[in-house]
Amino acid sequence: MYTGFWDQIKNAFTQQGNSLYKILAINLIVYAVLLVAWVFLSLSGAGDIYYAMRSYLMMPASPSYFITQPWTIFTYMFAHDRFFHILFNLLFLYWFGLLVNEYLGSRKLANLYILGGLAGGLFYMVIYNLAPLFSDVVDRSLMLGASAGVYSIVVAAATLTPNTTFRLLLLGPVKIKYIAIFYVLVAFANSAGSNAGGELAHLGGAAMGFLYVVQLRNGRDLGVPVQVVGRFFERLFSNKPKVKVTYRKKNYEYKSEPLKKGEITSQEEIDRILDKIAEKGYDSLSKEEKRRLFDFSNK
User: Fold this and answer.
1) Which of 38, 115, 123, 252 is 20 to 30 A from 262 (CA-CA)?
2) Which of 228, 223, 216, 225 is nearest to 293 (CA)?
3) What is the pLDDT of residues 208-242, one digit of tens each?
4) pTM as predicted
């Protein structure tokens, strides 16, 4: 049964295996809260309180400032304060996130977003403290937005399936590898401009997206720490069904049906592999299952 986009958003936190909609929902909720706070505080003449509150969510370039609020390396990637900023970020996250979710599954998509955001924030901080251009502004520079995580997912999708085509307004069909290359070049060209912090974060996120897929193909999942933390919070806030033990025993049948070379990889087999990844992690796959997954993603 088809479920609409807004229904998915509304039910994002009551369903499993839908990291894409959880990430979208968190960004929308934070944006709505900041928007309401800005309107009411500005109308009451307390706009300075809003900007002070927002700064506790933003990633600082100064290491000494960052030490006092280290949580910002996570919160900044879910916060926006401009409509078109969040609009374009979430559109690209949705379009390219659907591809990543199809080929790698929900957990890997969450890994890419979080690791891309972390890489983007750290790259922004490092360059701002090393490049002489930013020496006068490093102590007061702050950054927010999902762009680094989004770039990570965009580049990862283009690395996984470069010849997938999107139909763009006015341009027609364009392969996503060209879309990714274009946006990375734009970020690089603007990395010394007025929005240098954001553009540097884009580059850090893009590099992580490429590296993640390359390492995944080599059998190494850089997102294992993210998955460990994610599973901890899932267990902490979810009620475990009584039938879970029985269900998990049935899933061990994966080992009794190894895939054979020469067989045609079907969507049913890919779904089974993705289910196995969601349940036990990428490292539980056999070499043949990993080969099948990536062969299928490059069709």
Assistant:
1) 252
2) 216
3) 999 999 999 998 999 888 888 877 766 665 655 44
4) 0.77
